[in-house]
Design goal:
With about 400 residues, the chain is α/β, with parallel strands linked by helices. The protein is built from 13 helices and 15 strands.
């Protein structure tokens, strides 16, 4: 196709709604596209007419590019497209060349025309190009659910012609918003919660609490694998591994048995808040799901959250388990999350945990305990690990 330029055409959605901040979000998205393709031979990435273009080279592996772009938050969809001059004859011929790569019995042409000075409107382009494809292919036009759709985008910079839209994850580009700290276990919920907050443009650090040597290393090992999987979406991560066992033993000795879990989790949030301050994180993230377990009743959530001034984000609060599992499968964390493990939430747990914690009782129990030195010791013993995509 003479005069045609082959490009990856990248569309975004929410980024385009940012008004005067749009340029900042677009630039962040471009940086993230470049980071996602590190080590992959590609050409320049540039903005054009409310779109982002990625130039391939003769050595660009299309399959790798598709896999990488499909994990970049902020991308609504992308396509391998031809950019041709705004001439109806050239558009018509290029559309037929694209169609020849597909087997189809029904088709349609879908045109978007942002270049209003072009000689034909969208309906006229659809009819012209559609008639050309039909005359050469013998296929029938079907507007609803065709085998093949030829997409045309007429812009002041030329017309994009392509036959496939590959879905991206949507959302906002990571790094466009501030940082938060996610309390992550090796279970199903917290990795999904982390994914959802990252999709809002937030960069996450992670904290994991363990009870070694009373538990094996499976929980920690699984959590590290989960963080590595999630790092696909933000390119580098930090994981803080916090020993909780001395605090748990102290609470067992001096706290009421039914209140143990609430007291454990209050200590965990105090530690998480201290790490968040080190990380310049503006919020905490948990995988809490209202009513799923004893510690996640509204009364207990209130009693636990009281110890921190940071907002606690709970993106799974209203989901059912099947919804969470479906997303865990989609993002690649489910198989790791269901591997056998023991974590700090499975040891030293009372048979009958309190489900409606009374704050006065909680305060009275904590006054009997000197937890602060143990919290400081846990922070001192915390290990930090770095992850890169």
């Amino acid at each position: 196709m003479g005069g045609a330029e082959t490009l990856y055409l990248i569309h975004y959605h929410e980024v385009g709604l940012k008004g005067r901040n749009r340029g900042r979000f677009e630039n962040q998205l471009i940086r993230n596209i470049q980071r996602s393709l590190k080590g992959v031979p590609t050409g320049a990435v540039r903005r054009i007419s409310g779109r982002i273009l990625l130039e391939p080279t003769p050595d660009t592996p299309d399959g790798v590019v598709r896999d990488r772009l499909s994990g970049v938050f902020g991308i609504a969809n992308f396509s391998l497209a031809f950019l041709v001059p705004n001439e109806i004859t050239t558009i018509r011929e290029t559309a037929w060349a694209v169609a020849q790569n597909v087997r189809f019995e029904t088709f349609k042409v879908a045109t978007r025309r942002s270049h209003k000075a072009f000689e034909l409107n969208s309906d006229q382009i659809n009819r012209d190009v559609g008639a050309h494809i039909q005359s050469l292919s013998g296929a029938n036009v079907r507007m609803d659910g065709p085998d093949f759709t030829c997409y045309l985008e007429v812009t002041p910079d030329g017309t994009f012609v392509y036959g496939e839209k590959i879905k991206g994850p949507g959302g906002l580009p990571v790094g466009a918003n501030e940082r938060a700290l996610s309390l992550i276990s090796s279970g199903i919920d917290s990795p999904v919660a982390s994914y959802r907050i990252m999709k809002r443009g937030v960069t996450l650090s992670f904290v994991h609490f363990h009870s070694q040597p009373y538990t094996n290393r499976n929980s920690q090992r699984n959590t590290e694998e989960l963080v590595q999987t999630l790092t696909r979406y933000q390119y580098q991560s930090r994981l803080f591994l916090v020993p909780l066992v001395d605090i748990q033993r102290h609470i067992m000795q001096f706290g009421a048995e039914s209140y143990r879990v609430v007291l454990y989790r209050r200590s965990m949030l105090r530690i998480a808040e201290a790490i968040a301050q080190q990380e310049d994180a503006q919020a905490l993230v948990t995988g809490d799901n209202v009513g799923q377990v004893a510690s996640q009743t509204l009364a207990n959530i209130r009693a636990i959250e009281e110890v921190t001034l940071l907002p606690v984000l709970r993106p799974l609060a209203g989901d059912n388990k099947e919804e969470i599992i479906t997303q865990a499968r989609a993002i690649g964390t489910y198989e790791t999350s269901i591997e056998p493990y023991e974590d700090c939430c499975t040891v030293f747990v009372p048979k009958h945990p309190e489900t409606r914690a009374d704050l006065d009782r909680v305060h009275a129990l904590e006054r009997k305990m000197d937890l602060q030195p143990l919290i400081e010791a846990a922070l001192e013993a915390t290990e930090m690990k770095r992850f890169k995509r």
